[in-house]
Amino acid sequence: MSAGPVLLELRDLHAHLSTRWGVVRAVDGVSLTVREGETLGLVGESGCGKTMTALSILRLLPQPAGRIVAGQILLEGEDLVPKSERQMRRIRGRRISMILQDPQTSLNPVFSVGNQLVEALRVHRAGPRRRLRALAQEALRQVRVAAPAQRLRDFPHQMSGGMKQRVVGAIAVSGPPRVLIADEPTTALDVTIQLQYLTLLEEIQERTRLAMLFITHDFGIVARICDRVAVMYAGRIVESGPTRELFAAPRHPYTQALMAAVPRMDESVERLPAIDGQPPALQRLPPGCRFAPRCRHADDRCQREYPAVFAVGREHEAACWRAESSPSR
Protein backbone atom coordinates (compact mmCIF):
# COMPACT_ATOMS: atom_id res chain seq x y z
CA MET A 1 0.00 0.00 0.00
CA SER A 2 1.51 3.33 -1.04
CA ALA A 3 1.96 5.98 1.64
CA GLY A 4 0.28 9.36 1.30
CA PRO A 5 0.93 12.78 2.85
CA VAL A 6 2.50 13.17 6.30
CA LEU A 7 -0.20 13.07 9.00
CA LEU A 8 1.98 13.05 12.11
CA GLU A 9 5.34 14.74 12.52
CA LEU A 10 7.51 15.22 15.60
CA ARG A 11 10.13 17.96 15.38
CA ASP A 12 12.92 17.87 17.98
CA LEU A 13 10.50 16.88 20.76
CA HIS A 14 11.72 17.06 24.36
CA ALA A 15 9.65 15.78 27.29
CA HIS A 16 10.97 15.73 30.86
CA LEU A 17 9.83 14.18 34.14
CA SER A 18 10.72 15.94 37.41
CA THR A 19 11.55 13.39 40.11
CA ARG A 20 13.25 13.41 43.52
CA TRP A 21 16.34 11.98 41.80
CA GLY A 22 16.51 14.75 39.20
CA VAL A 23 15.06 15.62 35.81
CA VAL A 24 14.50 12.55 33.65
CA ARG A 25 14.96 13.39 29.95
CA ALA A 26 12.56 10.69 28.78
CA VAL A 27 12.15 12.12 25.27
CA ASP A 28 15.25 14.04 24.28
CA GLY A 29 15.06 15.49 20.78
CA VAL A 30 12.90 12.97 18.90
CA SER A 31 12.01 13.70 15.27
CA LEU A 32 9.92 11.35 13.13
CA THR A 33 7.12 11.32 10.55
CA VAL A 34 4.22 8.97 9.85
CA ARG A 35 2.38 9.15 6.52
CA GLU A 36 -1.18 8.31 5.59
CA GLY A 37 -1.59 4.56 5.11
CA GLU A 38 1.87 3.85 6.55
CA THR A 39 3.01 1.93 9.63
CA LEU A 40 6.11 3.20 11.43
CA GLY A 41 7.62 0.78 13.95
CA LEU A 42 9.24 2.24 17.07
CA VAL A 43 11.58 -0.27 18.73
CA GLY A 44 14.10 -0.34 21.55
CA GLU A 45 14.78 -1.75 25.01
CA SER A 46 12.40 -1.16 27.92
CA GLY A 47 12.89 2.30 29.40
CA CYS A 48 14.25 3.90 26.23
CA GLY A 49 11.32 6.35 25.93
CA LYS A 50 8.94 4.68 23.45
CA THR A 51 5.80 4.90 25.59
CA MET A 52 6.71 8.37 26.84
CA THR A 53 6.96 9.49 23.22
CA ALA A 54 3.45 8.14 22.59
CA LEU A 55 2.06 9.79 25.72
CA SER A 56 3.71 13.07 24.74
CA ILE A 57 1.99 12.98 21.35
CA LEU A 58 -1.40 12.63 23.04
CA ARG A 59 -0.44 15.15 25.75
CA LEU A 60 -1.02 12.51 28.42
CA LEU A 61 2.28 12.69 30.30
CA PRO A 62 2.05 11.84 34.03
CA GLN A 63 1.07 14.91 36.01
CA PRO A 64 2.41 16.99 37.65
CA ALA A 65 5.85 15.51 36.93
CA GLY A 66 5.71 15.39 33.13
CA ARG A 67 5.93 18.30 30.72
CA ILE A 68 6.91 19.01 27.14
CA VAL A 69 9.79 21.48 27.26
CA ALA A 70 10.56 21.96 23.56
CA GLY A 71 9.67 20.85 20.06
CA GLN A 72 6.55 20.44 17.96
CA ILE A 73 3.90 17.73 17.51
CA LEU A 74 2.25 18.35 14.14
CA LEU A 75 -1.01 16.54 13.44
CA GLU A 76 -1.98 17.24 9.83
CA GLY A 77 0.17 20.38 10.10
CA GLU A 78 -1.43 21.60 13.35
CA ASP A 79 0.83 21.89 16.40
CA LEU A 80 -0.61 20.10 19.46
CA VAL A 81 1.92 21.41 21.99
CA PRO A 82 0.17 24.76 22.72
CA LYS A 83 -3.32 23.19 22.83
CA SER A 84 -5.31 23.40 26.05
CA GLU A 85 -6.62 20.25 27.75
CA ARG A 86 -10.12 21.12 26.59
CA GLN A 87 -8.94 21.36 22.98
CA MET A 88 -7.03 18.07 23.29
CA ARG A 89 -10.17 16.26 24.46
CA ARG A 90 -11.75 17.08 21.11
CA ILE A 91 -8.69 15.77 19.26
CA ARG A 92 -8.06 12.52 21.16
CA GLY A 93 -10.13 9.68 19.79
CA ARG A 94 -11.44 11.69 16.87
CA ARG A 95 -8.21 12.56 15.06
CA ILE A 96 -5.58 10.58 16.95
CA SER A 97 -6.07 7.56 19.18
CA MET A 98 -4.08 4.99 21.12
CA ILE A 99 -4.28 1.28 21.93
CA LEU A 100 -2.56 0.63 25.27
CA GLN A 101 -0.47 -2.42 26.07
CA ASP A 102 -2.71 -4.16 28.60
CA PRO A 103 -6.45 -4.39 27.84
CA GLN A 104 -7.01 -5.49 31.43
CA THR A 105 -6.15 -1.98 32.64
CA SER A 106 -7.69 -0.16 29.67
CA LEU A 107 -11.25 -1.33 30.38
CA ASN A 108 -13.26 -0.44 33.49
CA PRO A 109 -14.37 -3.71 35.15
CA VAL A 110 -17.58 -2.23 36.62
CA PHE A 111 -19.07 -1.03 33.30
CA SER A 112 -20.29 -3.14 30.42
CA VAL A 113 -18.48 -3.10 27.08
CA GLY A 114 -21.48 -1.30 25.57
CA ASN A 115 -21.35 1.49 28.14
CA GLN A 116 -17.65 2.05 27.52
CA LEU A 117 -17.97 2.04 23.74
CA VAL A 118 -20.99 4.37 23.79
CA GLU A 119 -19.16 6.74 26.15
CA ALA A 120 -16.23 6.97 23.71
CA LEU A 121 -18.58 7.60 20.79
CA ARG A 122 -20.62 10.23 22.65
CA VAL A 123 -17.53 12.46 23.03
CA HIS A 124 -17.30 12.97 19.27
CA ARG A 125 -20.70 12.07 17.83
CA ALA A 126 -24.09 13.57 18.63
CA GLY A 127 -27.25 11.51 18.55
CA PRO A 128 -29.65 9.44 20.64
CA ARG A 129 -28.32 6.54 22.70
CA ARG A 130 -29.97 3.99 20.39
CA ARG A 131 -27.99 5.31 17.40
CA LEU A 132 -24.74 5.37 19.39
CA ARG A 133 -25.36 1.81 20.52
CA ALA A 134 -25.85 0.76 16.90
CA LEU A 135 -22.52 2.43 16.05
CA ALA A 136 -20.88 0.62 18.97
CA GLN A 137 -22.23 -2.68 17.66
CA GLU A 138 -20.83 -1.89 14.20
CA ALA A 139 -17.45 -1.02 15.76
CA LEU A 140 -17.29 -4.47 17.36
CA ARG A 141 -18.28 -6.07 14.07
CA GLN A 142 -15.39 -4.24 12.33
CA VAL A 143 -12.87 -5.81 14.71
CA ARG A 144 -14.35 -9.29 14.11
CA VAL A 145 -16.10 -9.72 17.47
CA ALA A 146 -18.70 -12.45 17.13
CA ALA A 147 -22.27 -11.76 18.32
CA PRO A 148 -21.61 -8.02 18.87
CA ALA A 149 -25.10 -7.34 20.25
CA GLN A 150 -24.49 -9.85 23.04
CA ARG A 151 -20.95 -8.62 23.68
CA LEU A 152 -22.20 -5.09 24.28
CA ARG A 153 -24.00 -6.41 27.36
CA ASP A 154 -20.96 -8.32 28.64
CA PHE A 155 -18.44 -7.09 31.19
CA PRO A 156 -14.67 -7.25 30.63
CA HIS A 157 -14.20 -10.20 33.02
CA GLN A 158 -16.47 -12.29 30.78
CA MET A 159 -14.04 -12.00 27.85
CA SER A 160 -10.70 -13.57 26.97
CA GLY A 161 -7.55 -11.46 26.67
CA GLY A 162 -7.73 -11.49 22.88
CA MET A 163 -11.39 -10.45 22.91
CA LYS A 164 -10.68 -7.60 25.34
CA GLN A 165 -7.87 -6.36 23.10
CA ARG A 166 -10.32 -6.32 20.18
CA VAL A 167 -12.74 -4.26 22.27
CA VAL A 168 -9.93 -1.81 23.11
CA GLY A 169 -9.16 -1.64 19.38
CA ALA A 170 -12.82 -0.98 18.61
CA ILE A 171 -12.84 1.95 21.06
CA ALA A 172 -9.61 3.31 19.55
CA VAL A 173 -10.85 3.25 15.93
CA SER A 174 -14.46 4.26 16.62
CA GLY A 175 -13.68 8.00 16.10
CA PRO A 176 -12.53 7.19 13.43
CA PRO A 177 -9.01 8.65 13.92
CA ARG A 178 -6.54 9.63 11.23
CA VAL A 179 -3.56 8.44 13.32
CA LEU A 180 -3.43 5.37 15.55
CA ILE A 181 -0.71 4.73 18.13
CA ALA A 182 -0.45 1.05 19.12
CA ASP A 183 1.70 0.60 22.24
CA GLU A 184 2.73 -3.07 22.27
CA PRO A 185 -0.87 -4.21 21.73
CA THR A 186 0.06 -7.88 21.24
CA THR A 187 2.28 -8.36 24.32
CA ALA A 188 -0.48 -9.95 26.42
CA LEU A 189 -1.66 -12.24 23.59
CA ASP A 190 -0.50 -15.72 22.62
CA VAL A 191 1.17 -16.23 19.23
CA THR A 192 -1.93 -17.40 17.35
CA ILE A 193 -4.08 -14.50 18.60
CA GLN A 194 -1.19 -12.08 17.89
CA LEU A 195 -1.29 -12.99 14.21
CA GLN A 196 -5.07 -12.58 14.06
CA TYR A 197 -4.83 -9.18 15.76
CA LEU A 198 -2.09 -7.93 13.44
CA THR A 199 -4.09 -9.06 10.42
CA LEU A 200 -7.09 -7.19 11.80
CA LEU A 201 -5.07 -3.97 12.22
CA GLU A 202 -3.81 -4.31 8.65
CA GLU A 203 -7.38 -4.74 7.36
CA ILE A 204 -8.55 -1.64 9.25
CA GLN A 205 -5.59 0.34 7.91
CA GLU A 206 -6.27 -0.81 4.36
CA ARG A 207 -9.89 0.28 4.67
CA THR A 208 -9.38 3.63 6.43
CA ARG A 209 -5.85 4.71 5.33
CA LEU A 210 -4.78 5.08 8.97
CA ALA A 211 -1.31 6.32 9.77
CA MET A 212 -0.04 3.94 12.46
CA LEU A 213 2.81 4.28 14.97
CA PHE A 214 3.45 0.73 16.22
CA ILE A 215 5.55 0.39 19.40
CA THR A 216 7.03 -3.06 19.98
CA HIS A 217 10.02 -5.11 21.16
CA ASP A 218 9.35 -7.81 18.59
CA PHE A 219 11.35 -7.60 15.36
CA GLY A 220 9.15 -10.33 13.91
CA ILE A 221 6.16 -8.01 14.20
CA VAL A 222 8.19 -5.15 12.70
CA ALA A 223 9.06 -7.29 9.69
CA ARG A 224 5.42 -8.37 9.39
CA ILE A 225 3.57 -5.05 9.34
CA CYS A 226 5.91 -2.03 9.41
CA ASP A 227 6.85 -0.01 6.32
CA ARG A 228 9.57 1.92 8.15
CA VAL A 229 11.24 1.51 11.52
CA ALA A 230 12.82 3.90 14.03
CA VAL A 231 15.21 2.53 16.66
CA MET A 232 15.19 4.38 19.99
CA TYR A 233 17.86 4.40 22.69
CA ALA A 234 18.01 6.51 25.86
CA GLY A 235 15.42 9.02 24.70
CA ARG A 236 16.66 9.50 21.12
CA ILE A 237 16.20 7.95 17.70
CA VAL A 238 19.56 6.39 16.77
CA GLU A 239 18.57 4.89 13.40
CA SER A 240 15.57 5.01 11.08
CA GLY A 241 14.79 3.80 7.61
CA PRO A 242 12.70 1.49 5.42
CA THR A 243 12.17 -1.83 7.19
CA ARG A 244 13.65 -4.00 4.45
CA GLU A 245 16.79 -1.88 4.13
CA LEU A 246 17.31 -1.58 7.87
CA PHE A 247 16.99 -5.34 8.31
CA ALA A 248 19.36 -6.01 5.43
CA ALA A 249 22.02 -3.49 6.50
CA PRO A 250 21.66 -2.00 10.01
CA ARG A 251 24.22 0.78 10.40
CA HIS A 252 24.10 1.76 14.08
CA PRO A 253 25.91 -0.61 16.50
CA TYR A 254 22.85 -0.68 18.77
CA THR A 255 20.58 -1.77 15.92
CA GLN A 256 23.15 -4.38 14.91
CA ALA A 257 23.26 -5.70 18.48
CA LEU A 258 19.46 -5.90 18.69
CA MET A 259 19.28 -7.75 15.38
CA ALA A 260 22.02 -10.17 16.46
CA ALA A 261 19.96 -11.06 19.55
CA VAL A 262 17.00 -12.23 17.42
CA PRO A 263 17.01 -16.05 17.07
CA ARG A 264 17.15 -17.46 13.53
CA MET A 265 15.27 -20.56 12.45
CA ASP A 266 18.06 -21.62 10.06
CA GLU A 267 20.82 -21.55 12.70
CA SER A 268 21.54 -23.64 15.77
CA VAL A 269 23.31 -21.79 18.57
CA GLU A 270 23.85 -22.68 22.22
CA ARG A 271 23.45 -19.11 23.43
CA LEU A 272 22.13 -15.95 21.79
CA PRO A 273 24.35 -12.85 21.75
CA ALA A 274 23.54 -10.30 24.47
CA ILE A 275 24.26 -6.57 24.80
CA ASP A 276 26.60 -6.07 27.75
CA GLY A 277 25.82 -3.41 30.34
CA GLN A 278 22.70 -1.35 30.94
CA PRO A 279 21.17 1.74 29.31
CA PRO A 280 22.20 4.99 31.04
CA ALA A 281 20.02 6.62 33.70
CA LEU A 282 17.98 9.29 31.89
CA GLN A 283 18.65 11.85 34.64
CA ARG A 284 22.45 11.38 34.30
CA LEU A 285 23.11 11.13 30.59
CA PRO A 286 26.70 11.09 29.32
CA PRO A 287 27.92 13.96 27.08
CA GLY A 288 28.80 11.75 24.13
CA CYS A 289 27.05 8.86 22.42
CA ARG A 290 24.72 7.23 24.91
CA PHE A 291 25.47 3.77 23.59
CA ALA A 292 29.27 4.26 23.82
CA PRO A 293 29.74 2.47 27.19
CA ARG A 294 28.20 -0.67 25.65
CA CYS A 295 29.65 -0.34 22.13
CA ARG A 296 32.70 -2.34 21.02
CA HIS A 297 33.46 0.27 18.33
CA ALA A 298 33.46 3.33 20.63
CA ASP A 299 36.49 5.65 20.66
CA ASP A 300 37.39 8.93 22.42
CA ARG A 301 35.23 11.00 20.08
CA CYS A 302 32.19 8.85 20.90
CA GLN A 303 32.75 9.53 24.60
CA ARG A 304 33.03 13.32 24.10
CA GLU A 305 30.49 14.26 21.41
CA TYR A 306 27.01 13.05 20.58
CA PRO A 307 27.10 12.03 16.89
CA ALA A 308 25.26 13.90 14.17
CA VAL A 309 22.64 12.11 12.09
CA PHE A 310 24.10 10.86 8.80
CA ALA A 311 22.27 9.68 5.68
CA VAL A 312 23.34 6.09 4.96
CA GLY A 313 20.76 5.23 2.30
CA ARG A 314 17.48 6.32 0.77
CA GLU A 315 15.47 7.65 3.74
CA HIS A 316 17.90 5.69 5.93
CA GLU A 317 19.71 7.61 8.69
CA ALA A 318 21.97 6.68 11.60
CA ALA A 319 23.33 8.75 14.50
CA CYS A 320 26.82 7.22 14.65
CA TRP A 321 30.28 8.60 13.93
CA ARG A 322 31.13 5.41 12.03
CA ALA A 323 28.36 6.27 9.55
CA GLU A 324 30.07 9.61 8.73
CA SER A 325 32.67 7.93 6.53
CA SER A 326 30.42 5.18 5.15
CA PRO A 327 29.09 5.79 1.67
CA SER A 328 25.31 6.22 1.48
CA ARG A 329 23.58 3.97 -1.01
Could you characterize the architecture of this molecule?
The chain is α/β, with parallel strands linked by helices and 329 residues long. It folds into two domains: 231 residues, 3-Layer(aba) Sandwich (Rossmann fold); 69 residues. Strands 6-7-8-3-9-10-12-11 form an eight-stranded mixed beta sheet, with helices on both faces. The protein has a four-stranded antiparallel beta sheet with strand order 2-1-4-5, covered by helices on one side. A hairpin with a 2-residue loop joins strand 11 and strand 12. Helix 5 crosses helix 7.
Apparent shape = globular
Beta-strand content: 15-25%
Q: Can you give the mean pLDDT?
A: 90
Q: Which CATH class of the largest domain is shown?
A: Alpha Beta
Summary, kept brief:
By secondary structure, the protein is α/β, with parallel strands linked by helices. The chain has twelve helices and twelve strands. Helices cover 32% and strands 24% of the residues.
SSE topology sketch:
Elements lengths: L5 E14 L2 E14 L3 E5 L6 H8 L8 E10 L2 E2 L5 H7 L4 E4 L3 H4 L6 H12 L4 H14 L5 H4 L9 H13 L5 E5 L7 H18 L2 E5 L3 H7 L2 E6 L2 E7 H6 L4 H8 L39 H5 L5 E4 L2 E3 L11
Parallel strand pairs: 3-8, 3-9, 6-7, 7-8
Antiparallel strand pairs: 1-2, 1-4, 4-5, 9-10, 10-12, 11-12
